Amino acid sequence: MAPSIRLSPAACSLFDEPLAIAVQGLSPRQQVTLRTSLRDETGELFQASARYRAGDDGELDLARCPALPGGSFSGLEPMGLLWALQPQKPFWRLVKRDVQSPFLLQLDVFEGHGERPGRLLAQAQHERAFLRDGVRRVPVREGRIRATLFLPPGDGPFPGIIDLYGTGGGLPEYRACLLANHGFAVLALAFYDYEDLPKGMKEFHLEYFEEAVNYMLQHTQVKGPGIGLLGHSKGGDLCVSMASFLKGITATALINGSVANVGAVLHYKDITIPPLGINPKRIKVGKSGIADIIDALNNPLEGPDQQSFIPLEKAECCFLFIVGQDDHNWKSEFFAVEGSKRLQAHGKEKPEIVCYPGAGHYIEPPFFPMCAASKHLLFGKPVMWGGEPKAHCEAQIDAWQQIQAFFRKHLTGKPSGTSSKL
């Protein structure tokens, strides 16, 4: 029997779902190298490889067989060939731009454990999709709003969430649509560098975000009385500002967010919050040319920088802070702890803080490969994001469950039995 690759699900799976990989028809105890390849929409190649030895029956099941040293990872890692994917181009991050098309994953099995691939024994292709059947993708151009709404299959109404990314700008949709697959109505909201929105990150007006909140609150498919906010990085502090000043927000989840306003002046009615100061002298650049910016921001507890601290004690919602303890973009854990102190000092409920050792800045949905360093738009050079690939991958899987459980509990009133696995 010729060797063949067995995948489950066979032809297509959702990107945040596990994929079971096995090889059958090998010789007993045969040494093989497995390689995965994936090209993003710009054509950039990501690859991972691992060395294995088949069992006595010639079967190789990645859920039972540990990878041997010498590849992209070692040990028992059923999903290692996905989370260990690395770009062949330096400082490149895997991003999904068109969620309506899947990523195509190529799997190859080669003979032996050499530095160069041996004879090709088997290959297979598999689609990693972003939209579950029946999820509706609705472009939104109402008033000033530039967004995309994702609605789950069925009649609804559904718990509603606004999803914000960080300083990359544009309109990333992949996290919003993956969340909609799990039963949420999610609005991916652009806030700069998209269509007719401002090109740069100089100042933001909270009235724009208020329009988006009101759009969701009035939508017939969105279950009231309030909605949730999900923000990563700069999107996190925008969510804190929205929760602090706007009505109709019940739950706010931050992924490595800040409780100080960062990077741009924020206006709302007659209120102005300046951005937290930056000291470029505190940026460290290593021999590789990669900058470590973790100490660049000033302390929002000292001097005039206190004006940048967002008054989150005004918020009428519950908070969840997801923290990568190896985040090198800024001090996410410090921000979470100070936000918690501020809330409790004003008699508010203590927020949930979930910390992940070994996780970096870009905590994405499950099975996105960790991005250790890439170009930072504000600094104009590659910066390190932090993280250790295996720990980061485990954090992404757990954080995804935590976020969904948090929103289910506060937006539907139904607790879900998820507890942290880390």
Automatic annotation (TrEMBL):
Residue stretches making up the Acyl-CoA thioester hydrolase/bile acid-CoA amino acid N-acetyltransferase domain: 16-142
Family annotation (Pfam families): BAAT_C, Bile_Hydr_Trans
GO molecular function, one term: fatty acyl-CoA hydrolase activity
Domain named BAAT/Acyl-CoA thioester hydrolase C-terminal: residues: 205-412
Entry superkingdom: Eukaryota
Record key words, sorted: Fatty acid metabolism, Lipid metabolism
SUPFAM superfamilies: alpha/beta-Hydrolases
InterPro entries (alphabetical): AB_hydrolase_fold (IPR029058), Acyl-CoA_thioEstase_long-chain (IPR016662), BAAT_C (IPR014940), Thio_Ohase/aa_AcTrfase (IPR006862), Thio_Ohase/BAAT_N (IPR042490)
Single Gene Ontology BP annotation: fatty acid metabolic process
Active site: 233, 327, 361
PANTHER family per record: ACYL-COENZYME A THIOESTERASE 6, ACYL-COENZYME A THIOESTERASE-RELATED
Protein family (similarity comment): Belongs to the C/M/P thioester hydrolase family.
Protein name: ACOT2 thioesterase
Native source species: Chloropsis hardwickii
Classification of source organism: Eukaryota, Metazoa, Chordata, Craniata, Vertebrata
